[in-house]
């Protein structure tokens, strides 16, 4: 098994970039409220700035209507968090660790009295973990592995974590 630290998302990097990215998103929104952006010049400028800060293709994010999704804070977090990187020698145990993380959104903190960045955004690591699995497992298919299933009587059920790992592991 890889060290747990190697498997976890680089939250310190996200925390470093988060405030700047959030400020840019909110400034763009304020600009649009006051002046509009019919020619998309400000949108393009924002996308370029965010891409330079994050190294990500920003076209996959909804910068215009974030308020209809998860909010500016979560959008800024998702942009600030680096994409997963391909690791060599990933084991079945590593995959099981990631599948388990998808089912629990708590990161251990020494002082839980005041939520820290990691605690605040731990519930929004799902995209990162799914991208990690897609990168490392050839058989990754969200609907087949993580989606709801129905039996012949229409009763709904989900795969257990072990069943998910069994489907992800054999054809890495």
Any overview of this molecule?
With 172 residues, the protein is mostly helical. The protein has two domains: 77 residues, no CATH class; 77 residues, no CATH class. It has a two-stranded antiparallel sheet with strand order 1-2. A hairpin with a 5-residue loop joins strand 1 and strand 2. The radius of gyration is 19 Å and the shape is globular. The two termini are 15 Å apart. The mean pLDDT is 90.
Integer average pLDDT:
90
Structural class: mainly alpha
Q: Count the DSSP helices.
A: 9
Number of strand segments: 2
Largest sheet descriptor: 2 strands, antiparallel
Percent of residues in beta strands? Answer: under 5%
* Secondary-structure element string: HHHHHHHHEEH
Percent of residues in helical segments? Answer: 40-55%
Number of structural domains: 2
Distance between the termini: 15 Å
Q: Compute the CA-based radius of gyration.
A: 19 Å
Unreliable sequence segments: none
Note the overall shape. Answer: globular
